[in-house]
Amino acid sequence: MTTTVLSVASEAYPLVKTGGLADVVGALPAALAAHGVQVTTLIPGFPAVARAIDGAEAVHHWPDLLGAQAWLRRGEVDGHPLLVLDAPEFFMREGPLYTDIGGKDWPDNWRRFAALGRAAADLASGAVPGFRFDILHAHDWQAAMGPAYLRLAPTGTDIARSVMTVHNIAFQGAFDASIFFELGLPHGSFSLDGVEYYGQVGFLKGGLESADAITTVSPTYAQEIHGPDFGMGLDGLIRSRVGRVHGIVNGIDPAVWNPANDAALAQRFTADTLDTRIANKRAVEAAFDLEPGEGPIFTVVSRLTWQKGMDVLAWVLDDLVATGARLALLGSGDAGLERAFRDAAVRHPGRIGVRIGYDEALSHLLQGGADAILIPSRFEPCGLTQLYGLAYGCVPVVARTGGLADTVIDANEAALSAGVATGIQFAGVSTESLKRALHRTTTLYADAQAWRMMQLNGMAADFSWDHSGLRYADLYRSLLGD
């Protein structure tokens, strides 16, 4: 029997993307289809989404959905069912998804994403004619009101079970208590076992409290959020639901991330033709105005934020150059960090190249042409860039945390001797620990045999969705059997 799942998120690749969340949501339908699960994805009708489904039929109408008219439009993406919440007043805004062009959160974000949750709960409780789902699967705070509405204020009687996935518990969707009375929830739900969170309305908190199961995107992160260092104020709730918390590592979509058929590369390659990868290195040098050379190129493809350890990296750039290495950085974020990396590029012309912004095709070229990818995150629920690096022979250099610790095998003496190393891990995000990691990396790079072994080990690793998809399918069926 097919299990039907409504997957709800604020973004999904290839329709709309700001980060790894979109990649995961976009990959889940195909990953789960192989395990007897049909996933229908529900996302907001942002401009790019509306353009992609132009002309799609409206299958439901809400005259008043949290204060605005909304339509449900049906389409498909990559052959899988798609539902779009078409609420122009909420979502038809050009520019960033969650902020204005100045980077300030939209003041009605609470209303926009409560509407997404309300629509999801209507669909998952049988209140929308023609739709029935076994499971409501919500991703991050923007979708977290779905499980909350489903438990606290369902509009139908055929109520699905629910799963809440935390991609990053630091982003919680906490809003002033004054909005509570506009959410359409029972008065008693502004409480410890409802949506109340330190005197505010907590969207993620409500989803975590309400869901039948909680997943995080790696086993190590699932353990880390049980404590105050990584739980971000929600660790007590997580501990209280310990039997319902599961860590399932993210996968990557080999149809999108595969150096053998990636059109963004200057030269496609496989493990058997690894030497031809050098053409991509030359293309990276040209794209970032780096001096041609044989020394290693480190890359960074990241948000430039404190969480990602970019402040520490900015402090050690002179040391990186002193090792004989070069850096190609693609990212955006904190204005001070953007300035620090630009200044470093001016200070070290030909050795450091910086592109502020995001470019999907360029990110593929960097994975296929740089020698090592730097990920010095203070915490990292899963991370996808290290998985892309492994698949493309771009050796990950990572902090030992979350999904980074779960997916990269450190090149310590034992792992090198056993021939199983895939990258470099370091403990503690500090200037000294990162300097040591950089020196370890450049030393290993000089050992051509050891370096190639790590590249080939990474490319041979299976981080497709096959195993993770099965874990999700088993979780869904265990909920339906409860």
UniProtKB/TrEMBL annotation:
Residues 291-436 form the Glycosyl transferase family domain. GO terms for cellular component: cytosol. GO terms for biological process: glycogen biosynthetic process. Keywords: Glycogen biosynthesis, Glycosyltransferase, Transferase. The keyword Transferase applies. Belongs to the glycosyltransferase 1 family. Bacterial/plant glycogen synthase subfamily. Synthesizes alpha-1,4-glucan chains using ADP-glucose. This is Glycogen synthase. The lineage of its organism: Bacteria, Pseudomonadati, Pseudomonadota, Alphaproteobacteria, Sphingomonadales.
